[in-house]
Write a structure and sequence with these properties.
mainly alpha
């Protein structure tokens, strides 16, 4: 949820899921109070929820001028999420790599301000995992002779569930992400075993004991 320095109408619009309306109201407030980091944060958060990631990052970067550690921690966390999403939409792997590296830097900044933020740590770990996998793919495409034997690809249902689970994780809906992944076939679960293990760790889940 946005922080308190907002008009009642903007906050109400955000709470009801009218994110574009909330963003416009916050931006009107930003025009009147350009140095208010909380309004910048709220405008960026509403823009992120509306899917306008470029606007979100612009407002959130403006909010990094805040001297409030609690606000800054939230700003950097949301910046990490926004740059991750931008990387997902990048037109080519090099652009995605650059954006995901920025996401990691922002998660690191959030963790410096609150080392106990499990959400930031979890998001950082799975962005790092995706970044490493993408870099490996890039290296293999540039050096095809060094490619290992092909690994079985997940099914289309598996890929769709993984994308939905990633989105759920960014909303901090870890149980929903876990439900999506454990509903997959055994072969798809095997393909995403590392991802499932990370979800189990953050949820505090363990596999059932054997007989």
């Amino acid at each position: 949820m946005p922080l308190a320095a907002s008009s009642a109408s903007a906050l109400k619009a955000y709470a009801k899921g009218r994110f574009d309306e909330a963003r416009r109201e916050y931006e009107r407030l930003v025009e009147k109070h350009p140095d208010d980091a909380r309004l910048r944060f709220n405008a960026g958060t509403a823009a992120y929820q509306a899917g306008d990631l470029t606007t979100a990052t612009n407002h959130l970067m403006g909010a990094t001028r805040s001297t409030d550690p609690a606000l800054l921690q939230n700003v950097y966390y949301n910046l990490g999420n926004a740059f991750y999403r931008l990387g997902e939409n990048a037109p080519a792997p090099p652009a995605a790599i650059a954006l995901w590296e920025q996401a990691l830097q922002h998660y690191d900044s959030a963790l410096k301000l609150d080392a106990g933020d499990g959400d930031a740590r979890f998001n950082r770990e799975f962005v790092q995992q995706r970044l490493e996998a993408l870099k490996q793919q890039q290296q293999q495409s540039q050096n095809p002779s060094s490619e290992p034997p092909p690994k079985r690809e997940p099914s289309e249902a598996g890929r769709q569930a993984k994308a939905q689970a990633d989105a759920a994780v960014l909303r901090k809906e870890y149980h929903r992400a876990y439900e999506l992944m454990t509903a997959l076939s055994e072969s798809d679960q095997a393909y995403y075993a590392d991802y499932l293990k990370r979800l189990q760790d953050v949820l505090g889940l363990v596999d059932p004991a054997g007989p």
